[in-house]
Amino acid sequence: MCELSDNDKQKIIDCIEEHITVDAKQIENWIGHLSYISDSLIDESMSDHHASLENLFWIRLFGLIVEIQENFQVSNDILDVTTYDEFTVKYPNLAENNQLLNYVFKILDLISLIKSKFNERELIAIDNYRQTNCHVLQKHYRLKVKTKNNRTSLDENYKVKTIPKSFNVKKLKSELDALIQSYNGSTIDVAIDFAKRINDPVKELYSFYKKLNS
C-alpha cells in the first residue's frame, strides 16, 4: 500500500507527465519502427530483407513490452492504481487538471494486449532473441558463480525480463529448443508469426501516440 504524502504523490504525477511530454516523440518513433518492421516481415515481397529485419524486430518488440511498459508502470505501482477511473476516485484532488494521465493507462492497456499475444515459452524466446541480437555472448543464460556475505555458490537461474520470472538455465534451454523446433529451426519464421499477431495492436498504439504528439 502506498504511504507517500500527497506532495510526494504529486511529484510522481508530475514525473509521469514529464515522461509523456518529453519522451513521447522518441517512444512514437520506436513504436513506428516496430510497426514498419512488422509490416515488412509479413510482406512476402520483402523476403530478401527478412533476415536483417528480424534482428531489429526482437530489439523493438522487447523494448516495447519491457522498457516502455516499465517506464509508465513504476509510477502507477507507487500510486497503487490500475485504471484512470480508479485514480480519480482514490486521489480526487490530485486527479484534477491531470487528464493527461489517462494516456498512461491507455498505453499500458495496449502494451498488455500486445504482450498477451504470447505464452510463457514465447516470451522467453523474445527475451533470448533480443539478448542474442544485442550482445556478443549470452552469458545470462549460463551457470554463474556468485559471492555474497563471503559465501560462494552456483547461480543456476536467470530472470526473464519479458515475464518477469526466474528460470533454471537448463529449463530455459529446453523451452527455447522446443519453440524453435516447432518452427523447423527458423527464427525468421518465428518473427513472421509474432509480427502477424502484434501487427494490429501495434498500429493502434502507434496511431494513439501520433495523436498524443500532434
Question: Describe it for me?
Answer:
The chain is mainly alpha-helical. Helix content is 70%, strand content 8%. It has helices spanning 6-42, 50-79, 84-90, 92-95, 101-115, 120-134, 169-182, 187-213, and strands at residues 144-148, 151-155, 157-160, 165-168. The strands form two sheets. It has a two-stranded antiparallel sheet. The protein has a two-stranded antiparallel sheet with strand order 3-4. The model has no long low-confidence stretch (mean pLDDT 87).
The percentage of residues in β strands lies in 5-15%
Structural class estimated from helices and strands? mainly alpha
> Could you report the average pLDDT, rounded to the nearest whole number?
87
Distance between the termini: 36 Å
Count of DSSP-assigned helices: 8
Approximate shape: flat
List unreliable stretches of 5+ residues: none
- Could you give the order of strands across the largest sheet? 1-2
Kindly provide the radius of gyration, computed on alpha-carbon positions and rounded to a whole number of angstroms.
20 Å
- What series of H and E elements makes up the topology? HHHHHHEEEEHH
Number of strands: 4
Please summarize the sheet with the most strands.
2 strands, antiparallel
Helix content: 55-70%
